[in-house]
Every structure is written in structure tokens, then in C-alpha cells.
Amino acid sequence: MRNHVAMLSALVMFRRFVRVVRYALREEDFLPVASAGVFIVLVGTLAYALGEGWHVVDALYFAVATLTTTSVADPALVLEHRWMKIFTVLYLLVGIGILVEILRRLGMAFVAVRSEAPQRRRRGSGPEDEPDRSESE
After folding, report:
1. pTM attached to this predicted model
2. Which of 18, 89, 94, 124 has the most CB atoms within 10 Å of its CB?
3. pLDDT tens across 84-105, in order?
């Protein structure tokens, strides 16, 4: 029974996250910021793959773990070249700023979606009945 409750909870959270992302994508400046986030991860992946000779999956793992400031659990993934260490410092300074901005915008979208939920419940409409905000602007 506990597994079913956990699965239901995960599905509800996923549905909420999808609503937040849909809301954020309708905002004017979210897509360029999200695209910058994808771009910075791709740049890091390519730099680590080419610069250190790593497999693309290892390079992607290292790039994401670096930007999210989590530790790299694979002891084989160590930067050997000094220029890659300098790249990583610059990569962190730029990349963390981009990721923080993405999270800030998603947080604002979460608050907006959550504040709209009681209004939808009172009207008896679901998320599919929401007016398209892009047409009203």
C-alpha cells in the first residue's frame, strides 16, 4: 500500500511540475534562459569529452554534476589538464548563474500556478479550461 501512495504522490508532483513548466514557457523570457541552460550543458559536455578524452556520457555526467555543485562520484573522472581546470572555473561562474535564473523563473511560475489553483477550483474548471494568456497580452 505504501508503494501505491508513494507512486500517487510522485504522479501528483510530476503533474504539478508539468503545469509549472507549461506556465513558465508561456512567459516571454523563459525560453531563451532555458535554451542558455541547455547550451551551457552541451558546451561543458563537448569541452570535457574533447579536452579530457572522456566518453560523451561521462562528460555529460561531469558537466551536470559540476554545474549543480554536487560531487562527482566516479573517481576516474579527474581533470588532468590545467587549461580544463581554468575552463571549469569559468564554466561554473557562468553556468551556475544561468541555472539559478532558470530555477528562479520556475519558482515564480510555481507560485503563480499555485495561486491560480484555488480560483480554478471555485470556477470548477481544470487546467485545460485555462484561458490562453498569450492572446490576452
Report:
1. 0.73
2. 94
3. 999 999 999 999 999 999 999 9
